[in-house]
Write a structure and sequence with these properties.
mainly alpha; Serine Threonine Protein Phosphatase 5, Tetratricopeptide repeat; 2 domains
């Protein structure tokens, strides 16, 4: 993997309604329905009643509500309490969120080694987001000795589950020859896989998203015949999906991120195109539709 310090993929803890056990499926579904309908005070009361009965899924959802301040006063320590209870019983999504809490020091003292421990538990259950998070920890050497090969192992597992984040990073590795044999063809293939999905790049500060990276390959004719229309299309989509800032200087220096934004790159390409070619690029961008991504959420054992 790159000789760099990529940004940890901070998982935004979100209210995720999980299937309940058959015994209390009715009450849990009532609580879930209240949450989906935006009645968070009622949902929090119902989740608490079930959480007090040791229901794993209710404990997780109650923890999320405290983390987000939904229907209750935001309280990271209380969130950690409930998330930890669900995580200790093997719920992968809770294990990943506990790892995130330790990584960020929310409701608990920051502890990267403990974050790695919880990310690994979830990743071992094939939880895709945790596989990405564990890959990030190995890539940066946070909580573990830096090991790019180990990082790439976890990114590949996430990529097999169609994670555009992981697929983009693998593309970067092949483009620059980081811990793999440099290959423009392989880089292009991985960028294309990632770029054909909706991918919010706005949170990235050290790297561009896959739509940008794919556009750059077309613009330069690397791994594919040079094609300004395709480059224009993909730079347009990159900007639309949030890739509108230049990466931080460490990203520029460490693994070759371009200082130019997607819109700047698009304008550079446009200067080489006819009006008809620009119109075609804009048409392709308007007509583009993403491939669906199916997320697998392992249940508690």
């Amino acid at each position: 993997m790159p000789r760099r310090h990529p940004v940890v993929q901070v998982v935004i803890i979100a209210l995720t309604v999980l299937a309940g056990s058959p015994v209390i499926a009715g009450p849990l579904e009532d609580a879930s329905a209240a949450a989906r309908g935006g009645d968070y005070p009622a949902a929090s009361r119902m989740f608490r009643a079930l959480a007090d009965q040791d229901n794993t899924y209710a404990q997780y959802n109650l923890g999320v509500m405290y983390a987000k301040g939904l229907g209750v006063t935001q309280d990271s320590a209380e969130a950690m309490k409930w998330l930890h209870l669900a995580a200790a019983k093997g719920l992968a999504i809770a294990q990943n969120d506990v790892g995130t809490m330790y990584r960020l020091g929310w409701g608990v003292a920051r502890d990267d080694a403990e974050a790695v421990n919880w990310f690994r538990r979830a990743a071992d259950q094939d939880f895709m987001v945790a596989q990405n998070n564990l890959g990030d920890m190995y890539a940066m050497g946070y909580g573990v000795q830096r090991d790019y090969s180990e990082a790439l192992k976890w990114y590949r597992l996430a990529a097999e589950q169609d994670s555009p984040y992981a697929q983009n990073i693998i593309g970067i590795a092949y483009e620059h020859g980081f811990s793999v044999q440099q290959s423009d063809a392989d880089a292009l293939a991985w960028y294309r896989r990632a770029a054909n999905k909706v991918y919010d790049s706005s949170h990235l500060t050290l790297m561009h998203g896959p739509q940008y990276n794919l556009a750059a390959m077309y613009a330069a004719g690397r791994g594919v015949s040079k094609n300004n229309v395709q480059a224009y299309m993909w730079f347009t989509l990159a900007a639309k999906l949030g890739d509108v800032k230049a990466p931080d200087l460490p990203g520029v220096a460490a693994f070759g991120s371009s200082k130019q934004t997607a819109l700047e790159q698009r304008d550079t390409v446009a200067a080489l195109m006819t009006s008809a070619e620009i119109a075609e690029g804009e048409k392709l961008a308007r007509e583009w539709s993403p491939h669906p991504v199916v997320f697998i959420r392992p249940q508690a054992k």
